[in-house]
Each structure stands twice: as structure tokens, then as C-alpha cells.
């Protein structure tokens, strides 16, 4: 299957996939996994009135269907306005964890755009959880404990955790 072609105009994204045209209007306050896709980014309000940026890296799938669990990254970015594609271009991910789709709206954020992960050279970090090496949601098998230090630990975020982490990194006087 050919890769999707994307064109953006103002707050509208048009995607042509297999000859079917669909339009996504941003911002989105997601409640269903069918409403989102990997590569979408969202703002996270900070305590000092500025914003940080999260990115959907992977959506967990079970039996071929999306679940409401997302692997998200926190970009090394903050600003006085919502993030744009230009702001996050080639901007690294500094934190990665699993969160429930409702966490985005719980912290006051919304999905505001899409940018293919490969344009920024992004892919999930390999992580360790309970002695197993994980690539996204795929379990690659157990690894010796002396190798744990070579990887970050898998974090499962509570509803407010992404906001707490963003504030720790970016909020002034926090």
C-alpha cells in the first residue's frame, strides 16, 4: 500500500489513503482510539502559563484493534504559544511513557496537529520493564539485569503525570 499523502491548510488536515479522502479538523479532544494516529502532537499547559508539547509515538493494538493506551513522548520544547510543526521540527523526545487517551484532556491539552514521526527521525526508545526489553508495545524478551542500565525504564503515566513531568522540565519557578 502506498504511504498516505498529507497536506495541511490552517487547522485542517486532508489525508488520502487508498483513494479515500478524509479530513481531520484540529483541535481534537480525543476520547476514542479511532480518532487519533501516530505522529499527532498535543499541547500541555504549564503552571507558568506557557506550553509544552507531547507526541503520540505508538497506539497499542490488541487483536488488530487500537486500544486507548498510547506511547507518548515529551518534546524538548516549551513556548508561550501552542506548538507548531515548525517548533517541533527535529526536536528530540526527552521523556517517554504510556498513558491513557483521556490524560490529554485531563491535563487541559488538545491534539492540534499531525507531523509524520519519520520527518523528525523519531521512533520509540527501547525500554525495560520487569526484566523485559520493550520496543514500543512489543516485548523483545528478557534481558540480563546487568543490561538494564543501557535502557530507560518503562513508565506508565497516571492521568496527570505528563503535566507534572512537563512542569518539572519547563515551568519557570515550579
Describe the structure in brief.
This protein is mostly beta strands and 174 residues long. The chain is 11% helix and 44% strand.
General description of the model:
There is one protein chain. The protein is mainly β. The protein has one domain. It has three helices and twelve strands, in the order E-E-E-E-E-E-H-E-H-E-E-E-E-E-H. The chain has helices at 85-88, 102-106, 161-170, and strands spanning 5-9, 12-17, 20-25, 40-45, 51-62, 65-79, 93-100, 111-114, 126-129, 132-135, 138-142, 152-153. The strands form three sheets. Strands 7-6-5-4-8 form a five-stranded antiparallel beta sheet. Strand 9 and strand 10 form a beta hairpin. The radius of gyration is 16 Å and the shape is globular. The termini are far apart. Mean pLDDT is 88; it is low at 1-21.
Oligomeric state of shown chains: single chain
SSE succession: EEEEEEHEHEEEEEH
Q: Level of helix content? A: 10-25%
List segments where confidence is low: pLDDT < 50 over at least 5 consecutive residues: 1-21
Global structural class: mainly beta
- Main pleated sheet: 5 strands, antiparallel
Strand % is 35-45%
Mean pLDDT score: 88
Cα end-to-end separation: 48 Å
What global shape is seen?
Answer: globular
| Strand arrangement, major sheet | 7-6-5-4-8
Count of discrete structural domains? 1
Number of strands: 12
Supply Rg: 16 Å
Number of helices: 3
Which helices and strands appear, and what pairs or packs with what?
Elements (H helix, E strand, L loop, with lengths): L4 E5 L2 E6 L2 E6 L14 E6 L5 E12 L2 E15 L5 H4 L4 E8 L1 H5 L4 E4 L11 E4 L2 E4 L2 E5 L9 E2 L7 H10 L4
Parallel strand pairs: 9-12
Antiparallel strand pairs: 1-2, 2-3, 4-5, 4-8, 5-6, 6-7, 9-10, 10-11
Amino acid at each position: 500500500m502506498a504511504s498516505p499523502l498529507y497536506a495541511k491548510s490552517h487547522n485542517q488536515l486532508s489525508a488520502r489513503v487508498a483513494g479515500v479522502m478524509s479530513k481531520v479538523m484540529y483541535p481534537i479532544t480525543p476520547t476514542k482510539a479511532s480518532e487519533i494516529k501516530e505522529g499527532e502532537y498535543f499541547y500541555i499547559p504549564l503552571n507558568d502559563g506557557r506550553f509544552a508539547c507531547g507526541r503520540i509515538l505508538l497506539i497499542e493494538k490488541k487483536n488488530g484493534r487500537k486500544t486507548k493506551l498510547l506511547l507518548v513522548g515529551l518534546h524538548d520544547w516549551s513556548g508561550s504559544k501552542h506548538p507548531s510543526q515548525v517548533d517541533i521540527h527535529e526536536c528530540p523526545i526527552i521523556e517517554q511513557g504510556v498513558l491513557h487517551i483521556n490524560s490529554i484532556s485531563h491535563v487541559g491539552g488538545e491534539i492540534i496537529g499531525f507531523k509524520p514521526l519519520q520527518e523528525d527521525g523519531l521512533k520509540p526508545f527501547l525500554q525495560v520493564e520487569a526484566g523485559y526489553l520493550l520496543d514500543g508495545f512489543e516485548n523483545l524478551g528478557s534481558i540480563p539485569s546487568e543490561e538494564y542500565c543501557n535502557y530507560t525504564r518503562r513508565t506508565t503515566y497516571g492521568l496527570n503525570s505528563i503535566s507534572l513531568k512537563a512542569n518539572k522540565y519547563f515551568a519557570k519557578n515550579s
